[in-house]
Amino acid sequence: GHEHYREQLKKMEDEYEDDFSDFVYIHPAASFADEKANHPSASFDRTIEKMQKAIALHSIQKKPKKDRGKMRDPKYRDYLNRGEYNPFLHNAWRLMGEAQYLKGDFLASAATFSYIERYFNWLPELVAEAKIWQLRCYTALDWNNEAENVLARLKESELTTNDLRRQYNTAYADYLIKQRQYEKAAPMLRQAWKATKRHQK
């Protein structure tokens, strides 16, 4: 599923032809929000199906047997309160949400990343990334109130890696452009451009 995702993403970014007579989309997938726009030909259905199957087959939601000797440890209590005990399954949820966005199914992607934000709260970097993807989805849908709510929840202190900062700068720049706040968007775009590689640069 991941290999298929990488192949389709490369195809999308390499083959998509931007329309330079209008604003260029922050990513080819964003064009799906406009019926009149030129749309990418890549397909992410297989990736989504594979991730749905992985989640269905490998999810572990049954709570482990309590160790009474560890109940005073707050970290152990937090562990017992999790909704998912497969330590790798969050990767399937994230890849499914990304594939849904790239397919142009922004509503489904926003729902997936909202789920990730709520149910994988012991993975702070993943939660921050989920908020950024929600921002991208709501911006594509022109759901300004929802986008602003995400921005209010996403704190500067959560952007703990260069990749999170790049993703945030890209998503926030896109939001500002949609709001016609071009002077605010410009420095965000410059920073995103510096950190972006390959064709998407």
Instruction: Tell me the series of helices and strands, N- to C-terminal.
Output: HHHHHHHHH
Q: What is the helix fraction of residues, given as a range?
A: 55-70%
User: End-to-end distance, in Å?
Assistant: 25 Å
Counting H and I runs of at least 4 residues, what is the number of helices? 9
How many strands? 0
Beta-strand portion reads under 5%
* Mean pLDDT value: 92
Question: What's the Cα radius of gyration?
Answer: 18 Å
Which residues form runs of ≥5 with pLDDT under 50? none
Decide which structural class fits the backbone.
mainly alpha
Gross geometry? globular
Which key terms come to mind for this protein?
mainly alpha; globular; 201 residues; single chain; 0% strand
Structural account:
This protein has helices spanning 2-15, 45-58, 74-80, 89-103, 106-119, 124-141, 144-153, 162-178, 182-195. With 201 residues, it is mainly alpha-helical. α5 (106-119) runs antiparallel to α6. The longest helix has 18 residues, at 124-141. It is globular and about 65 Å long. The two termini are 25 Å apart. The model has no long low-confidence stretch (mean pLDDT 92).
Short description:
The protein has 201 residues and is mainly alpha-helical.
SSE arrangement:
Elements: H1 2-15, H2 45-58, H3 74-80, H4 89-103, H5 106-119, H6 124-141, H7 144-153, H8 162-178, H9 182-195
Helix pairs in contact: 2-4, 4-5, 4-6, 5-6, 6-7, 6-8, 8-9
